[in-house]
Protein backbone atom coordinates (compact mmCIF):
# COMPACT_ATOMS: atom_id res chain seq x y z
CA UNK A 1 0.00 0.00 0.00
CA UNK A 2 1.25 3.48 -0.86
CA UNK A 3 -0.29 5.33 2.08
CA UNK A 4 -0.57 3.76 5.50
CA UNK A 5 -1.76 4.87 8.89
CA UNK A 6 -0.71 2.26 11.43
CA UNK A 7 -2.06 2.07 14.98
CA UNK A 8 -2.42 5.81 15.34
CA UNK A 9 -3.30 7.21 18.77
CA UNK A 10 -3.99 10.63 20.22
CA UNK A 11 -5.43 11.73 23.56
CA UNK A 12 -6.20 15.17 24.88
CA UNK A 13 -6.05 14.73 28.66
CA UNK A 14 -8.45 11.89 29.44
CA UNK A 15 -10.15 12.20 26.05
CA UNK A 16 -9.06 9.55 23.56
CA UNK A 17 -9.59 11.48 20.30
CA UNK A 18 -8.04 8.81 18.03
CA UNK A 19 -7.92 5.23 19.21
CA UNK A 20 -5.47 2.92 17.50
CA UNK A 21 -6.69 3.48 13.95
CA UNK A 22 -5.14 1.91 10.86
CA UNK A 23 -6.02 3.03 7.32
CA UNK A 24 -4.54 2.07 3.96
CA UNK A 25 -4.84 3.73 0.59
CA UNK A 26 -3.36 2.99 -2.83
CA UNK A 27 -1.80 5.79 -4.85
CA UNK A 28 -4.38 7.43 -7.12
CA UNK A 29 -7.34 6.41 -4.94
CA UNK A 30 -9.79 8.65 -3.13
CA UNK A 31 -10.86 7.84 0.39
CA UNK A 32 -13.99 9.29 1.96
CA UNK A 33 -13.37 9.92 5.64
CA UNK A 34 -16.62 10.11 7.55
CA UNK A 35 -17.72 10.52 11.12
CA UNK A 36 -20.04 12.59 13.23
CA UNK A 37 -18.82 15.82 14.82
CA UNK A 38 -16.02 15.02 17.25
CA UNK A 39 -15.32 11.57 15.77
CA UNK A 40 -11.60 12.26 15.33
CA UNK A 41 -11.25 13.18 11.65
CA UNK A 42 -9.56 16.55 12.07
CA UNK A 43 -7.26 15.20 14.77
CA UNK A 44 -6.18 12.43 12.39
CA UNK A 45 -5.55 14.96 9.61
CA UNK A 46 -3.62 17.25 11.93
CA UNK A 47 -1.35 14.37 12.88
CA UNK A 48 -0.85 13.53 9.21
CA UNK A 49 0.23 17.12 8.57
CA UNK A 50 2.45 17.17 11.66
CA UNK A 51 0.43 20.11 13.02
CA UNK A 52 0.04 18.20 16.28
CA UNK A 53 2.25 15.37 17.53
CA UNK A 54 0.86 11.85 17.62
CA UNK A 55 1.02 9.84 20.86
CA UNK A 56 1.98 6.69 18.97
CA UNK A 57 1.63 4.98 15.62
CA UNK A 58 3.00 5.53 12.12
CA UNK A 59 1.91 7.45 9.05
CA UNK A 60 3.77 6.33 5.92
CA UNK A 61 4.00 7.18 2.23
CA UNK A 62 5.77 4.56 0.12
CA UNK A 63 7.38 3.20 3.28
CA UNK A 64 8.79 6.58 4.38
CA UNK A 65 7.30 9.03 6.89
CA UNK A 66 4.31 10.88 5.42
CA UNK A 67 5.79 14.36 5.37
CA UNK A 68 6.20 17.41 3.16
CA UNK A 69 9.85 16.36 2.96
CA UNK A 70 8.85 13.23 1.02
CA UNK A 71 5.91 14.34 -1.10
CA UNK A 72 3.86 17.36 -2.17
CA UNK A 73 0.79 17.63 0.06
CA UNK A 74 -2.19 19.90 -0.51
CA UNK A 75 -4.53 20.70 2.37
CA UNK A 76 -7.86 22.48 2.32
CA UNK A 77 -8.66 22.95 6.02
CA UNK A 78 -12.18 22.99 7.39
CA UNK A 79 -11.57 26.28 9.16
CA UNK A 80 -10.35 28.77 6.60
CA UNK A 81 -6.95 30.29 7.07
CA UNK A 82 -6.46 33.23 4.71
CA UNK A 83 -4.99 36.65 5.39
CA UNK A 84 -8.02 38.95 5.26
CA UNK A 85 -6.14 42.13 4.29
CA UNK A 86 -3.83 40.60 1.68
CA UNK A 87 -4.90 40.83 -1.95
CA UNK A 88 -6.02 37.61 -3.56
CA UNK A 89 -3.25 37.20 -6.11
CA UNK A 90 -0.45 38.03 -3.64
CA UNK A 91 -2.01 35.62 -1.17
CA UNK A 92 -2.02 32.72 -3.61
CA UNK A 93 1.55 33.49 -4.73
CA UNK A 94 2.63 33.61 -1.08
CA UNK A 95 1.15 30.17 -0.37
CA UNK A 96 2.69 28.80 -3.57
CA UNK A 97 6.11 30.06 -2.49
CA UNK A 98 5.63 28.49 0.96
CA UNK A 99 5.25 25.21 -0.93
CA UNK A 100 8.56 25.75 -2.69
CA UNK A 101 7.44 27.38 -5.96
CA UNK A 102 9.36 30.32 -7.37
CA UNK A 103 7.45 33.58 -7.63
CA UNK A 104 7.10 33.60 -11.42
CA UNK A 105 5.79 30.05 -11.53
CA UNK A 106 3.41 30.71 -8.61
CA UNK A 107 2.02 33.79 -10.36
CA UNK A 108 1.51 31.92 -13.63
CA UNK A 109 -0.36 29.08 -11.90
CA UNK A 110 -2.34 31.50 -9.72
CA UNK A 111 -3.65 33.31 -12.80
CA UNK A 112 -4.60 30.02 -14.45
CA UNK A 113 -6.53 28.91 -11.36
CA UNK A 114 -8.26 32.27 -10.89
CA UNK A 115 -9.45 32.07 -14.48
CA UNK A 116 -10.52 28.46 -14.12
CA UNK A 117 -12.57 29.20 -11.00
CA UNK A 118 -14.00 32.35 -12.56
CA UNK A 119 -12.62 34.83 -10.01
CA UNK A 120 -9.96 36.58 -12.12
CA UNK A 121 -11.79 39.86 -11.53
CA UNK A 122 -10.94 39.54 -7.81
CA UNK A 123 -7.18 39.14 -8.24
CA UNK A 124 -6.36 42.62 -6.94
CA UNK A 125 -9.08 42.77 -4.27
CA UNK A 126 -8.41 42.31 -0.59
CA UNK A 127 -9.46 38.79 0.39
CA UNK A 128 -11.96 40.11 2.97
CA UNK A 129 -13.82 41.88 0.14
CA UNK A 130 -14.78 38.53 -1.41
CA UNK A 131 -17.91 36.57 -0.58
CA UNK A 132 -17.54 33.51 1.65
CA UNK A 133 -17.87 31.17 -1.33
CA UNK A 134 -15.24 33.04 -3.34
CA UNK A 135 -12.86 33.06 -0.35
CA UNK A 136 -13.39 29.32 -0.29
CA UNK A 137 -12.24 29.14 -3.91
CA UNK A 138 -9.12 31.15 -3.05
CA UNK A 139 -8.44 28.74 -0.20
CA UNK A 140 -8.83 25.83 -2.61
CA UNK A 141 -6.33 27.41 -5.01
CA UNK A 142 -3.78 27.83 -2.20
CA UNK A 143 -4.19 24.09 -1.49
CA UNK A 144 -3.70 23.03 -5.12
CA UNK A 145 -1.35 25.59 -6.67
CA UNK A 146 1.80 23.49 -6.21
CA UNK A 147 0.26 20.47 -7.98
CA UNK A 148 0.25 18.23 -4.88
CA UNK A 149 0.42 14.45 -5.18
CA UNK A 150 -1.61 13.92 -2.01
CA UNK A 151 -4.60 16.12 -1.32
CA UNK A 152 -6.68 16.45 1.84
CA UNK A 153 -10.01 18.16 1.35
CA UNK A 154 -11.84 18.87 4.61
CA UNK A 155 -15.46 19.90 3.96
CA UNK A 156 -14.60 21.46 0.58
CA UNK A 157 -18.22 22.20 -0.32
CA UNK A 158 -19.17 24.22 2.74
CA UNK A 159 -20.38 27.70 1.87
CA UNK A 160 -20.60 27.10 -1.90
CA UNK A 161 -23.75 27.84 -3.87
CA UNK A 162 -24.96 25.14 -6.33
CA UNK A 163 -23.11 26.67 -9.31
CA UNK A 164 -19.83 26.90 -7.39
CA UNK A 165 -20.41 23.43 -5.93
CA UNK A 166 -20.64 22.08 -9.49
CA UNK A 167 -17.43 23.91 -10.37
CA UNK A 168 -15.68 22.31 -7.42
CA UNK A 169 -17.07 18.90 -8.35
CA UNK A 170 -15.46 19.20 -11.76
CA UNK A 171 -12.14 20.19 -10.12
CA UNK A 172 -12.32 17.12 -7.87
CA UNK A 173 -13.12 14.93 -10.89
CA UNK A 174 -10.08 16.35 -12.69
CA UNK A 175 -7.89 15.57 -9.67
CA UNK A 176 -9.24 12.01 -9.67
CA UNK A 177 -8.56 11.70 -13.41
CA UNK A 178 -4.99 12.91 -12.80
CA UNK A 179 -4.60 10.01 -10.33
CA UNK A 180 -4.03 12.18 -7.30
CA UNK A 181 -4.32 10.44 -3.95
CA UNK A 182 -7.09 12.14 -2.02
CA UNK A 183 -8.65 12.10 1.43
CA UNK A 184 -12.07 13.66 1.26
CA UNK A 185 -13.84 14.58 4.51
CA UNK A 186 -17.44 15.58 4.20
CA UNK A 187 -20.78 15.34 5.91
CA UNK A 188 -22.43 15.40 2.49
CA UNK A 189 -22.94 11.73 1.83
CA UNK A 190 -24.08 12.05 -1.78
CA UNK A 191 -20.81 13.72 -2.67
CA UNK A 192 -18.74 11.13 -0.86
CA UNK A 193 -20.72 8.44 -2.61
CA UNK A 194 -20.20 9.97 -6.03
CA UNK A 195 -16.43 10.46 -5.66
CA UNK A 196 -15.08 7.81 -3.33
CA UNK A 197 -14.62 4.15 -4.06
CA UNK A 198 -13.24 3.60 -0.58
CA UNK A 199 -14.59 4.88 2.73
CA UNK A 200 -13.75 4.84 6.39
CA UNK A 201 -16.04 5.82 9.24
CA UNK A 202 -14.76 7.03 12.60
CA UNK A 203 -16.86 6.95 15.74
CA UNK A 204 -15.63 8.29 19.08
CA UNK A 205 -12.04 7.97 17.88
CA UNK A 206 -12.48 4.37 16.70
CA UNK A 207 -12.39 3.18 13.12
CA UNK A 208 -15.68 1.29 12.74
CA UNK A 209 -15.73 0.87 8.94
CA UNK A 210 -12.85 0.78 6.45
CA UNK A 211 -13.45 -0.84 3.07
CA UNK A 212 -14.43 -0.41 -0.55
CA UNK A 213 -17.82 1.32 -0.70
CA UNK A 214 -19.29 -1.59 -2.69
CA UNK A 215 -18.24 -4.05 0.04
CA UNK A 216 -19.68 -1.81 2.76
CA UNK A 217 -22.99 -1.80 0.92
CA UNK A 218 -22.99 -5.54 0.39
CA UNK A 219 -22.30 -6.12 4.08
CA UNK A 220 -25.30 -4.04 5.10
CA UNK A 221 -28.12 -6.29 6.31
CA UNK A 222 -30.92 -4.50 4.51
CA UNK A 223 -32.03 -3.46 1.06
CA UNK A 224 -34.79 -1.08 0.13
CA UNK A 225 -37.84 -1.90 -1.94
CA UNK A 226 -39.65 1.10 -3.37
CA UNK A 227 -43.27 0.72 -4.40
CA UNK A 228 -45.44 3.27 -6.12
CA UNK A 229 -49.19 2.91 -6.08
CA UNK A 230 -52.30 5.04 -6.04
CA UNK A 231 -54.02 2.48 -3.80
CA UNK A 232 -54.47 3.81 -0.29
CA UNK A 233 -54.80 0.28 1.11
CA UNK A 234 -51.12 -0.44 0.74
CA UNK A 235 -50.33 1.65 3.81
CA UNK A 236 -52.81 -0.30 5.94
CA UNK A 237 -51.44 -3.56 4.64
CA UNK A 238 -47.81 -2.62 5.39
CA UNK A 239 -48.76 -1.40 8.85
CA UNK A 240 -50.77 -4.53 9.59
CA UNK A 241 -47.93 -6.79 8.43
CA UNK A 242 -45.46 -4.68 10.47
CA UNK A 243 -43.18 -3.76 7.60
CA UNK A 244 -40.51 -1.16 8.34
CA UNK A 245 -41.45 1.55 5.85
CA UNK A 246 -41.68 5.25 5.13
CA UNK A 247 -44.18 6.96 2.87
CA UNK A 248 -43.93 9.99 0.66
CA UNK A 249 -47.15 10.73 -1.23
CA UNK A 250 -47.90 7.52 -3.14
CA UNK A 251 -44.36 6.14 -2.83
CA UNK A 252 -43.45 3.65 -0.16
CA UNK A 253 -39.95 2.68 0.86
CA UNK A 254 -39.63 -0.64 2.65
CA UNK A 255 -36.56 -1.72 4.56
CA UNK A 256 -36.18 -5.41 3.82
CA UNK A 257 -33.68 -7.80 5.42
CA UNK A 258 -31.18 -9.01 2.84
CA UNK A 259 -32.13 -12.60 3.68
CA UNK A 260 -35.73 -12.03 2.54
CA UNK A 261 -36.76 -13.46 -0.85
CA UNK A 262 -37.34 -10.16 -2.54
CA UNK A 263 -38.96 -11.45 -5.76
CA UNK A 264 -41.54 -13.39 -3.80
CA UNK A 265 -42.38 -10.17 -1.98
CA UNK A 266 -42.68 -8.19 -5.21
CA UNK A 267 -45.00 -10.87 -6.56
CA UNK A 268 -47.09 -10.71 -3.39
CA UNK A 269 -47.47 -6.94 -3.59
CA UNK A 270 -48.08 -7.08 -7.33
CA UNK A 271 -50.95 -9.53 -6.89
CA UNK A 272 -52.61 -7.53 -4.13
CA UNK A 273 -52.13 -3.96 -5.32
CA UNK A 274 -51.96 -2.09 -8.56
CA UNK A 275 -48.35 -0.99 -8.64
CA UNK A 276 -47.13 1.83 -10.89
CA UNK A 277 -43.50 1.36 -10.01
CA UNK A 278 -41.23 -1.13 -8.28
CA UNK A 279 -37.52 -0.75 -7.65
CA UNK A 280 -34.96 -2.45 -5.50
CA UNK A 281 -32.23 -0.25 -4.05
CA UNK A 282 -29.00 -0.88 -2.24
CA UNK A 283 -28.72 1.24 0.91
CA UNK A 284 -27.33 4.71 0.39
CA UNK A 285 -24.20 5.77 2.22
CA UNK A 286 -26.43 8.13 4.19
CA UNK A 287 -28.48 5.20 5.50
CA UNK A 288 -25.40 3.17 6.34
CA UNK A 289 -23.77 6.14 8.07
CA UNK A 290 -26.83 6.84 10.22
CA UNK A 291 -27.12 3.22 11.25
CA UNK A 292 -23.42 2.75 11.99
CA UNK A 293 -22.83 5.99 13.84
CA UNK A 294 -26.09 6.15 15.81
CA UNK A 295 -29.29 8.06 15.24
CA UNK A 296 -32.60 7.37 13.60
CA UNK A 297 -32.93 6.29 10.02
CA UNK A 298 -34.03 9.24 7.94
CA UNK A 299 -35.20 7.83 4.65
N1 LIG B 1 -6.87 20.63 21.01
C1 LIG B 1 -7.78 19.87 21.61
N2 LIG B 1 -7.89 19.85 22.96
C2 LIG B 1 -8.80 19.07 23.57
N3 LIG B 1 -9.66 18.27 22.92
C3 LIG B 1 -9.61 18.24 21.60
C4 LIG B 1 -8.66 19.05 20.86
N4 LIG B 1 -8.85 18.80 19.53
C5 LIG B 1 -9.85 17.90 19.44
N5 LIG B 1 -10.30 17.57 20.67
C6 LIG B 1 -11.37 16.59 20.96
O1 LIG B 1 -11.08 15.41 20.24
C7 LIG B 1 -12.28 14.83 19.72
C8 LIG B 1 -12.14 14.66 18.22
O2 LIG B 1 -12.21 15.96 17.60
P1 LIG B 1 -12.00 16.22 16.05
O3 LIG B 1 -11.92 17.69 15.84
O4 LIG B 1 -10.87 15.39 15.56
O5 LIG B 1 -13.37 15.66 15.44
P2 LIG B 1 -13.93 15.72 13.94
O6 LIG B 1 -14.29 14.33 13.57
O7 LIG B 1 -12.97 16.43 13.05
O8 LIG B 1 -15.26 16.59 14.12
P3 LIG B 1 -15.97 17.66 13.12
O9 LIG B 1 -16.77 16.87 12.12
O10 LIG B 1 -16.87 18.41 14.05
O11 LIG B 1 -14.92 18.51 12.50
C9 LIG B 1 -13.42 15.75 20.15
O12 LIG B 1 -13.98 15.21 21.34
C10 LIG B 1 -12.72 17.05 20.43
O13 LIG B 1 -13.43 17.79 21.41
Automatic annotation (TrEMBL):
<protein>
    <submittedName>
        <fullName>ABC transporter ATP-binding protein</fullName>
    </submittedName>
</protein>
<dbReference type="Pfam" id="PF00005">
    <property type="entry name" value="ABC_tran"/>
</dbReference>
<keyword id="KW-0547">Nucleotide-binding</keyword>
<feature type="domain" description="ABC transporter">
    <location>
        <begin position="3"/>
        <end position="229"/>
    </location>
</feature>
<keyword id="KW-0067">ATP-binding</keyword>
<dbReference type="InterPro" id="IPR050763">
    <property type="entry name" value="ABC_transporter_ATP-binding"/>
</dbReference>
<dbReference type="GO" id="GO:0016887">
    <property type="term" value="F:ATP hydrolysis activity"/>
</dbReference>
<dbReference type="InterPro" id="IPR003439">
    <property type="entry name" value="ABC_transporter-like_ATP-bd"/>
</dbReference>
<dbReference type="GO" id="GO:0005524">
    <property type="term" value="F:ATP binding"/>
</dbReference>
<dbReference type="Pfam" id="PF13732">
    <property type="entry name" value="DrrA1-3_C"/>
</dbReference>
<dbReference type="InterPro" id="IPR025302">
    <property type="entry name" value="DrrA1/2-like_C"/>
</dbReference>
<dbReference type="InterPro" id="IPR027417">
    <property type="entry name" value="P-loop_NTPase"/>
</dbReference>
<dbReference type="InterPro" id="IPR003593">
    <property type="entry name" value="AAA+_ATPase"/>
</dbReference>
<keyword id="KW-0813">Transport</keyword>
<dbReference type="InterPro" id="IPR017871">
    <property type="entry name" value="ABC_transporter-like_CS"/>
</dbReference>
<comment type="similarity">
    <text>Belongs to the ABC transporter superfamily.</text>
</comment>
